[in-house]
Amino acid sequence: MTGALTISGLDCFYGEVQVLHGLNLDLRKGEVLCLLGRNGAGKTTTLKAIMGLVPARSGSIMLDGHDLTKLAVHEVPKAGVAYVPQGRRLFAEMTVAENIEIGLMTRNKGSQTRESVLELFPLLRDRLRQRSGTLSGGEQQMLAMARALCLEPEVLLLDEPTEGLMPSMIARIRETVTKLRARGVSTILVEQRVDAVLSVADRVSFIENGRNRETVGVGRLRKDPAFVQRYVGVG
């Protein structure tokens, strides 16, 4: 499996309103690609389109030679794509262990996968019997990522994972993303703030009005802040 994802000419609509306009994007094996752009630029819609939650009117989303746009929504995770939406969407009444179990069931993974995931999030091991709704925001974010990783995904989609978290938790999330890259997971990360991604991203795609305007290496971004000013404004 290459783990590489290629989006070509993607058009998506909400009703009659077009939100993605011929979007082109490529995610390389084992890289962290960040999507940056203003609110309403189409970043979250791009992730939802990959998951099939927003249908593609035209274009393709290729993973390992398979076009994800041809799959039913429930088949996309089974193809190896995991999604952690903004707001986390955990089963609040269920324990940490039960939420993890649901993740494991998606691709019939077992105790070896569970152990591997808990190694990434040792803090969750002490919380297995706790109801997930009683966890702190940072702990909930870790659980949402852990549940997604129970798929053993080739591609991980993270929508603003550090939003509203304390600096110590933000550091842990970034550290986890870096560890996943070392394991060969390819990640698309949506963030609002460029400072949140410079330490973890390999490349940054600037999304504006439903189009990928430019993709640059993070080194170039550090040298030339004008990119950020142009596409994101101050922030």
TrEMBL record:
Record GO biological process: L-amino acid transport
Alphabetical UniProt keywords: Amino-acid transport, ATP-binding, Nucleotide-binding, Transport
All copies of domain ABC transporter, residue ranges: 5-234
UniProt xrefs under InterPro entries: AAA+_ATPase, ABC_transporter-like_ATP-bd, ABC_transporter-like_CS, BCAA_Transport_ATP-bd_LivF, P-loop_NTPase
PROSITE patterns per the UniProt record, alphabetical: ABC_TRANSPORTER_1 (PS00211), ABC_TRANSPORTER_2 (PS50893)
Organism superkingdom: Bacteria
Alphabetical list of Pfam families matching this protein: ABC_tran (PF00005)
Keyword field contains ATP-binding: yes
Any one GO MF annotation of this record: ATP binding
Coiled coil ranges: none
Family membership: Belongs to the ABC transporter superfamily.
Protein name: ABC transporter ATP-binding protein
